[in-house]
Amino acid sequence: MGAIRDISPFERPREKALKYGVSTLSNIELLALIIQSGGKNNSVLTIAYNILDKGNGLSGFFSHDYESLLKIKGINKVTAIKLLAIKELMQRCEHLQVVSKAHITNSEDIYKMFRIKYFEKSNEEITILLLNHANQIIKEEVIASGSVNEVAIDFRSIFRDVLKNNCHKFILIHNHPTGDSMPSEEDIYYTKEIKKKARSLGIQLLDHIIFGKHNYFSFKDNALI
């Protein structure tokens, strides 16, 4: 990846953005604008490329945390914090797009709301979303976390949260750090058990959504609940 000075003036990210608009920039060029400057042996474009190189395009950016960013040559503490701030803003914007809606309408709403948060998780985690009668989320809470391959489900904690908040609907979401969103036999078994126990208490499990690296699986959409 060449140095900025070796690029034609109007093909440099800043000049290109000013002349043609930021929408014409590649992901690498956009990151280069944010980073602003490189080091002696690493141009800003090379640094931007290395950030994205870990994954497929922008997914490489979302997979980084503070420690992994500092391992990239040319990134100091200030730049790492700046990049994490950009990532946090993107996550909050996606979250607000769903929250601002009158109510949750489908599994894609949930996916858009939480995908960045779950993308960087290295262990499984289960979150419960409590909904009111209009399918508006009134509370979200992590109820369990575990190792890379397993997480312990406590039925009591699920129903305690639902009943304590006077709700009768809830959605479960959890992630598969391995990247595959397809449910395991245990996922299917426990989901059916939770639905059965919830029904006996007059509570409705609307959906169970599993997040992979680049997609998701909805039990409701696939007629498993």
Walkthrough of the structure:
This protein has 225 residues and is α+β, with helices and mostly antiparallel strands. It is 44% helix and 15% strand. The protein has nine helices and five strands. It has helices at 13-20, 27-35, 44-53, 58-62, 66-70, 77-99, 107-119, 155-164, 185-200, and strands spanning 125-131, 137-145, 169-175, 204-211, 216-218. A five-stranded mixed β-sheet has the order 2-1-3-4-5, sandwiched between helices. A hairpin with a 5-residue loop joins strand 1 (125-131) and strand 2 (137-145). It is elongated and about 65 Å long. The mean pLDDT is 81.
Order of helices and strands: HHHHHHHEEHEHEE
Average pLDDT metric: 81
Query: What's the helical proportion of residues?
Result: 40-55%
Structural class: alpha+beta
Q: Globular, elongated, flat, extended or rod-shaped: what is the shape?
A: elongated
The quaternary structure here is single chain
Strand order of the largest sheet: 2-1-3-4-5
> Whole-Å distance between the termini?
50 Å
The helix count comes to: 9
What is the radius of gyration computed over CA atoms, rounded to a whole number of angstroms? 21 Å
Strand content: 15-25%
Low-confidence stretches: none
Q: Could you tell me the number of beta strands?
A: 5
Q: Tell me the major beta sheet.
A: 5 strands, mixed
